[in-house]
């Protein structure tokens, strides 16, 4: 799907922005770059430097005098628009764009174009009217000067999110929901029985060392339970905590009954 | 809300990236920039040029020798991490980060830090272990070289999405997003500085009682950090744990020097 999304840059002034846009695309798995009438030198050494290893996208970029040939095989043309125009046009947020994308690209032949305008004045009304939809990246009311490559980065990221959503549906492994911590863990989680034994041990030790008075418990054990329960301890963590408690028990026994050996004589 | 989100850049080499990060922040309404031990010139003319009108953020940026002071008043510290580490840590996607953010920031005093590492090698394990949560921006398996300012742009954009979601749903507080625990809490969450003091105390006590050998640390402290960090301790819980440690310290001192009274004679 991502290989059928085309980034179209119109009238770019700064070659560095073309390179940075290529880098932004490649990190998100996009491949197709089309340049329409760049106003500067186009792909020059600065563009290649800023591409930082994404120069294969620059090499394969297509160059056009006008917008039309860059769009001709596209089924959905989306223009990145900074400001609202006098003539209202179907508009979506980057999130809504992302949500629509998989459906728009379901046919294997579907190609989508994302069109970005000039650094200083964006897309003309004529260009905006070549688009099916406008997408507006919400920016601060006080400062909306989004860099061209940064705008490409945000929408390329939303393209990748859209693609990831199609991948996760197939095998039911939503990133972040597969495991309680959003990542494959190194140890199995502790089971209920072992967790309860830990709490018994913890309470006994806290009584022994004089920190906890079962006749005046306040909420001590309830609060400690809440703390440890919500961390979802794994088995190694639980064993470490029990090891610490055992060490404190030995200390306590030695302190209370210094003449009495707590371990069998070996 | 957005004014209480801090972008922390550690060991940045290229001043241009600092400027571009400031610009990315400002377009999304973020204001707080903290620089930790920049490796290059820091804020120089190139940084100001790339900030392109966001130079007020550069002027107000704080500069720190180490990470600690940049985090000390923060309740939620999130590290941008490119790769998975040998010790798994609670991880979220930028979307999940965005969904959690309004709840995390509901208290007017809550400050959140988003920490970004070096251009060439990201965050160290030690730095990553100062974080409650890691956030990973999904990138192409073939090319994951996300520019620093581009990464700031994506997460700043997700911060703004989070803020926009609070503006539109004035009455709709989604269960599970209202607070980190999905419910109004009884105590404020512990801040970074107090949490670090707890870990120092814990480590000292574990060394004193002979459970932890700093010359052969294995992953003990990292694992304990992970356990407590992901439970998001509140101030009362933290005080209880410190009280337990203090009790164990007294026991240990009494045990080591039995002739020395640990309490005043009554």
UniProtKB/TrEMBL annotation, chains A, B:
One of its GO terms (molecular function) is tRNA (cytidine(32)-2'-O)-methyltransferase activity. It is found in: Cytoplasm. Keywords: Cytoplasm, Methyltransferase, S-adenosyl-L-methionine, Transferase, tRNA processing. Its EC number is 2.1.1.200. The keyword tRNA processing applies. GO terms for biological process: tRNA nucleoside ribose methylation. Its main location: cytoplasm. It catalyses: cytidine(32) in tRNA + S-adenosyl-L-methionine = 2'-O-methylcytidine(32) in tRNA + S-adenosyl-L-homocysteine + H(+); uridine(32) in tRNA + S-adenosyl-L-methionine = 2'-O-methyluridine(32) in tRNA + S-adenosyl-L-homocysteine + H(+). One of its GO terms (cellular component) is cytosol. It holds the Pfam family SpoU_methylase. The keyword Cytoplasm applies. CDD domains: SpoU-like_TrmJ. Belongs to the class IV-like SAM-binding methyltransferase superfamily. RNA methyltransferase TrmH family. Catalyzes the formation of 2'O-methylated cytidine (Cm32) or 2'O-methylated uridine (Um32) at position 32 in tRNA. Homodimer. This is tRNA (cytidine/uridine-2'-O-)-methyltransferase TrmJ. It comes from Kushneria marisflavi. The gene is trmJ.
